[in-house]
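Before we proceed, please read the two lines closing this message. Tell me what the token row says about the fold.
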Amino acid sequence: MPRRTPRTMLDRLRTPRRFPKFLMGASICVLIAGLLSPLSHAAAADTPVLAANDYCGGQCSDILPAGQNGNATLAEIILNQAFGTQPAHAEDQLGPYANLASGHPALTDAKINDFFRDASFGVPADQVESTLKPAGRTDVTIVRDKKTGVPHITGTTRYGTEFGAGYAAAQDRLWLMDVFRHVGRGKLTPFAGGAPSNQGLEQEFWRHAPYTEADLQAQIDSVVAKNGARGQQALADVRAYLDGINAYIDAADSGRYFPGEYVLTGHKDSITNAGTIEHFKETDLVALASVIGALFGSGGGGEVNNAISLLAAQSRYGVEKGTQVWESFRERNDPEAVLTVHDGESFPYATKPAVPQGAAMPAAGTVTEEPLVYDRTGSAATAGAARTSAAATASALGSARRGMSNALVVSGEHTASGHPIAVFGPQTGYFAPQLLMLQEIQGPGLSARGASFAGLSMYVELGRGQDYAWSATTSGQDIIDTYAVELCQDDTHYLHRGTCTAMEKVEQTNAWKPTTADGTPAGSYRMQVWRTKYGPVTHRATVDGKKVAYTTLRSSFLHEADSIIGFQMLNDPGHVKSPETFQSAVQHINYTFNWFYADSEHTAYYNSGDNPVRAAGVDAEFPVRAQPAYEWRNWTPATNTADYTPPSEHPNSIDQDYYISWNNKQAKDYTTAPWGNGSVHRGNLLDDRVRRLVTEGGVTRASLTRAMADAGLADLRAEDVLPKLLQVIRTSPVTDQAAAAAVTRLSDWVTAGAKRKETSAGSKTYAHAEAIRILDAWWPLLVKAEFEPGLGSGLYTAMTNNLPVDEPPSAGHGPTGSHAGSSFQYGWWSYVHKDIRAVLGEPVRGALAEPYCGGGSLSACRDVLISTLKQAAGRTAAQVYPGDELCSAGDQWCADSINQRTLGGIKHGKISWQNRPTYQQVVEFTSHR
């Protein structure tokens, strides 16, 4: 059942009811006029910025909805909430982005920029909208173009360039940057209000990274100390960037054109201008980085859930058979899984040991989650707040990280031009303002254009250089392990290398009160984490009769800032000159990402992350004893450093015929932490299409983009699993009238391509709407009826805790909420696919250990499918799509639709569902330096 969309800090401003008398008053026009008067703060100059060296030949494009401008004054927020008007460049990329869903079938190279925007370096003189010398500096210029308002920053000094980057970032995303520095510190509710969604965000991320101020500073010191000249340069860049941010804060404060959210949340007074916008400091950027790393770059975890499900399987089947059943569902290295490196090369990592050592399996029924929230008062003590905390805990402690993002890269051998082509980008959810922002940055040692996370845009993080482009997808390999520390003395002491050691308590109390932006009643709570040398405590249990605390140790813990060196290299044209130098750059990124590269001659791939070298015999799937024999090799607790697998052991490749990634398995024998990498994965939607294009030859930018867009409308279940389900049903005539009608509708939909798309652009009605409704209702029913009788309710529930049954577009998606676009990442499609094929008598590589549908009987399986199909067909649209704060019950299109989730005062309209990157590039370089 779709979750209700969580309230955001400014959902209460979604209708003008918050200001009825205010808006009707005659003085509103005078007030707005007064508030708008300072908006001419960026004086225009006459000198345009010339383009730097650009080898893309006008064939680089990108798009980032809703728009570049993520700041709005109080007047602009009021106008938007009351009348729907948009600030300049706030949503001028949303329409082209949305239109690709209906427009891609007719796409040609000449029409690409109808749906994307030109990503060439520089701004033609006739397209300059504004030119600014920030803070009166003579060593940097910020030029914004008329079409999108993207800042093109050109500096004559390194300091000036980074100062300009910081200034431009604050111009476009100051409020969002402030929100996320507070999220990273676990202090969102006092800053922005106690809405349940705000409580959930700060709880989830603070559990992931409960840092003190000293911890944050130590991470900066470490990066500088161990990276020589590049470390010193990174620190200088950060300081210049912060100077730019703070210069804008001062200018906006004195000029009274700061974001209006500061007034609405009580930090500034709209009449007297009293109040303070706090300057940014170095440690704020580490807090920001910890949020991004938690969202997209930290694979692993879930070992406690794995242990619980294994014990349930062994209880159901016995130890030997239960272990076989568990392993068949885990699909560590499924031979049918789609791979990014598909040339057969093996990259063993986190594989199952022949003789496991050091496992710390809990006694049945003894596992309890470690509480995070204490001393609740007011609105924090409600049942809804408790449910929010439970959801945040489940998301933080599971292995099913929301990976998102995709990539399609084809070598020049298979393109029409002979040059490689890439269509790639990150799926980072949909927010208003967007988490990412665009910029071009040109200065000494810097030459790039693309997207960066707001507040971390001292470098372009995903984009293009002079003659190369790069992007990333979340990889999810396991860099998080769970240790069982034996307790001694009491519940807050543990044995560390033979010594009874006190746990460190890290805590903070958050309190909030109602504001104009968030009317949540006053409330407060205290968040508390017990930290050990082996990481924060997440659970408690009994192991072999002894009380233990389970902790989670992440290789990037205390190293959130380390990746800055890799991003610095990616922006340096003096470093990246080839596939090999690109790979050497991303090797310095310690988060778990798949990195892709294309220039005019070559393509490349590399999987990044600090993969710890585990002790011999340790199985990364389960908790392990906190003893020296089972620690990471050469692990130093004080700094959380260890030996990591060398670059050659990470999946990597140069000039493979093509690459695809949609958070699927990277390579043969390379175990990913999330469950569900089996015979059906959304990566197959890309792989099938790109493989066909490569086989045909003559790939173009348009044809590769069409493949991406077509996959982005496909229902994975309908395309890859439904035909097998219908095959079982059709082994005998369907005599029941309701079932027969449902089969006809589903069959017609499959024949038409199994897409979730509108009848025509803007119709807000799906073609084959009834078939889609039936499958959405049927899937959870058939999975339960297919597997629960054989597994038993206890094991079935434990397995669904490891891997959700379904993830259609109308479902919620972790921190990004519902209406988030990204779909079909996690589900039981491989299990159904393998089981049904086995029942049909077809060969299945990596088959499940037992048949489940109908106990393996074809006729009994058919009966299960027919009965659940009839049940699904009888469910109304209102039952399948129950509605939420954005959609009425029964509105199928709306239930799927993408909404820019408000993180500020500006709201945007919904767009039709697409399963594609939020920021996306289409690139084909024509020449090389």
